[in-house]
Design goal:
single chain, mainly alpha, two-stranded antiparallel ribbon, two-stranded antiparallel sheet, elongated
Length: 162
């Protein structure tokens, strides 16, 4: 059973699935679904379409350089069947998948490192910006420490009340 890769999005095309397009110069393009085929016909660049593997790799969202990808490459040289070699290969495939999953998790963790701090800063800014909506004007008059005068929309409100 030969598993092909979609020319546009790089996903797996299983036997009996997808579309195959043969150009006049006999170059074969395989697509996993009509979405990829239509984008190809519209002459879209896979590196500029956000949902493709090419885009994700180009922008550093997916791993690009890893030794585990070497095992996925297509090989055209036929191998002589050997039972022990096949058993070893199947065991190795399981280990390689495990290693790849761990490396992808590490890559994702490194990518998302500064995200929590950034989200907290954005939330803090939004709270500071719209604090006047949460605290009533009477509470602001009684407790002036609640009002930060550095914000221009609050300065106007404090000036109007006085």
């Amino acid at each position: 059973m030969r598993l092909e890769k979609c020319w546009f999005c790089s996903s797996t095309v299983y036997p009996g699935h997808g579309i195959q397009f043969v150009r006049n110069d006999a170059k074969i393009f395989r697509f996993c679904r009509s979405k990829c085929h239509k984008n190809f016909k519209m002459k879209r660049n896979p590196r500029k379409v956000k949902w493709t593997k090419a885009y994700r790799r180009l922008r550093g969202k997916d791993m690009t350089q890893d030794s585990t990808f070497e095992f996925e490459r297509k090989r055209n040289r036929p191998e002589r069947y050997d039972r022990s070699l096949t058993e070893d290969t199947l065991k190795a495939i399981k280990k390689i998948d495990k290693v790849r999953i761990e490396r992808e998790a590490r890559h994702h963790k490194n990518r998302m490192k500064g995200k929590n701090v950034k989200e907290q800063n954005e939330k803090r800014k939004e709270i500071d910006h719209s604090l006047h909506l949460v605290i009533s004007p009477i509470a602001q008059q009684q407790e002036p420490s609640l009002v930060k005068v550095s914000q221009p929309h609050l300065e106007k409100q404090v000036a109007m009340e006085e």
